[in-house]
């Protein structure tokens, strides 16, 4: 991750799209992809974007997405940057629990109401067409609870705090036709944005 310490006024957004190449391709193949996934590695792209960290400094991080959505995703993050929206960390492979990421070939996770670990259906992350934004600050909730203890303070959505999905952030994703899990009925997935809204 690149860290820039220049004054905010002189920092322009930088972003790029590239094919998935080693060593990241190898890491994705080992940790986020397996035979039978609905998208081959050849259809994934790396979208590198600048963003404002929680400390207010500009950082850069890579998102691995489907090639079909790479351009729109770059536009969304340009918009989030213009909003000075705070992102804890962008990392494609990191299980710390609060990294913004996209591609992960896995099943959808059931509601915290029902328990269990899989729905038996592909998540939109398995297609590279979903992004989880600041998962701790934007929890997956159901029945008034979340699986992540650190997210409990964020179950109360009445007071916006740093990193929480704002109406402007939601509008940035909506501008490319993506839906938000925070708009679901019943179970809410406040971190989740996807090309089909699921």
Describe the structure.
With 198 residues, the protein is of the alpha+beta class. It has one domain. The chain contains three helices and ten strands, in the order E-E-H-E-E-H-E-E-E-H-E-E-E. Strands 1-4-3-2 form a four-stranded antiparallel beta sheet, with helices on one face. A three-stranded antiparallel beta sheet has the order 5-10-8, covered by helices on one side. Strands 7-6-9 form a three-stranded antiparallel beta sheet, with no helix packed on it. A hairpin with a 5-residue loop joins strand 3 and strand 4 (58-66). Helix 2 (70-82) packs antiparallel against helix 3 (167-174). It is globular. The two termini are 30 Å apart.
Features:
single chain; alpha+beta; 3 helices; 10 strands; 21% strand
Enumerate how many helices there are, as a single number: 3
Structural class by secondary-structure content: alpha+beta
Sheet with the most strands, sense and barrel status: 4 strands, antiparallel
Residue share in β-strands: 15-25%
**What is the H/E order?**
EEHEEHEEEHEEE
| Gap between N and C termini | 30 Å
Helix content: 10-25%
User: Which residues form runs of ≥5 with pLDDT under 50?
Assistant: none
Bulk shape:
globular
Show the helix and strand layout.
Layout: E1 2-4, E2 15-19, H1 24-31, E3 44-52, E4 58-66, H2 70-82, E5 130-132, E6 140-142, E7 145-146, H3 167-174, E8 179-180, E9 188-189, E10 192-194
Antiparallel strand pairs: 1-4, 2-3, 3-4, 5-10, 6-7, 6-9, 8-10
Helix pairs in contact: 2-3
């Amino acid at each position: 991750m690149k860290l820039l310490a220049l004054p905010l006024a002189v920092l322009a957004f930088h972003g790029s799209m590239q094919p998935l190449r080693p060593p990241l391709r190898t890491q994705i193949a080992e940790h986020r992809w397996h035979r039978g996934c609905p998208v081959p590695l050849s259809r994934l792209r790396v979208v590198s974007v600048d963003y404002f960290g929680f400390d207010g400094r500009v950082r850069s991080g890579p998102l691995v997405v489907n090639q079909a959505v790479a351009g729109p995703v770059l536009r969304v993050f340009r918009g989030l940057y213009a909003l000075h929206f705070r992102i804890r960390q962008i990392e494609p492979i990191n299980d710390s629990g609060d990294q913004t990421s996209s591609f992960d070939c896995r099943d959808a996770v059931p509601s915290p109401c029902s328990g269990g670990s899989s729905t038996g259906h592909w998540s939109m992350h398995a297609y590279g067409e979903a992004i989880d934004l600041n998962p701790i600050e934007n929890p997956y909730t159901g029945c008034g609870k979340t699986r992540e203890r650190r997210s409990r303070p964020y179950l109360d959505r009445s007071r916006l705090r740093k990193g929480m999905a704002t109406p402007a952030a939601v509008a940035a994703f909506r501008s490319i036709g993506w839906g938000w899990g925070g708009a679901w009925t019943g179970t809410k997935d406040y971190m989740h944005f996807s090309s089909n809204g699921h």
